[in-house]
Amino acid sequence: MTGIKELAYVVYQVSDLMDWEHFGVTLLGMQFGHKTPNGFSLRTDQKAYRWLIEQGPADDLVATGFEVDSDAELDLIVARLQSAGREVTVADADLIRARRVERLVSTTDPMGNRVELITGFADADTAFESRALLGGFVTGAGGAGHEVLTTPGVTRETYLEFYVDLLGMQISDTIVEKIAPGVYADLIFLHCNPRHHTVALGDVPVPRSIHHFMVEVSDIRDVGRAWDRCLAAHQPIEMTLGMHTNDRMFSFYVSSPSGFAVEFGWGGLLIDDPAAWQIGHFDMRDSWGHESPTRVAESLHAGTMKGAH
Ligand SMILES: [Fe+2]
Fold this sequence. Notes:
Layout: E1 6-14, H1 17-27, E2 31-36, E3 39-43, E4 51-55, E5 60-67, H2 71-83, E6 89-90, H3 93-99, E7 103-108, E8 114-119, E9 146-150, H4 156-166, E10 170-180, E11 183-191, E12 199-202, E13 210-217, H5 220-232, E14 237-244, E15 250-255, E16 261-266, E17 280-282, E18 286-289, H6 293-308
């Protein structure tokens, strides 16, 4: 089925631009892209930008841009959205210019997230360069990365109808994990290219529309070095180094200056043959690690005390 090709960019509204520049460029190793009227952009590859950072009070995701292969395919998706009763707005010339795309239509997903469907996402004029990474970010056919969106009060049928039936994504797998007596983390993972998932959706108890955005690097040493930089800067760590059961990403989670997390990972599983893919069901999110920092600190402290006796 015709559908979106990849996650091209995200737009965040943040209260502190300076903190975000330090976080993106110095800690994560992204490249400062360009200044905008109310913020700046960050690059992770040859594209004009991947994250647009705008000054504002939300401290949350404000838009996700998904690229579509051609005008004809975009027209088909728009027709599907409209026949399902979803409002579609054609962007004006100012927004097209600001997003550096050829065409842009916007709609809203069932959780109220702004979704921008685009063609012709521009490249930058200069080669990508990171001051911090030994390798680079893994993008290409897999797009900018993946994001996990929260779905309080929205049924799985409702959001799958949007992301699978209308945008044309495919289910990768599900994870239902008991995190406390009677409390479950219930997540479903969707792909639209070889990246194991581009969007995951779940009823996660966070006050924002996004739980985290994942960026992947090509050199495993860059995960460790980013971890070191975040620790040295006292950037709050949300989950320590670990590996997920489903996409086998080796990663850690750091809090952004806006409170939602960034997963910094390496070695994620690829879906090379979508036709042969079997949808998996997991009852644990992690095969190891991804602990709370408090728990790790307590264990390390207890070990030190034991060694002292
Ligand atoms: Fe993730």
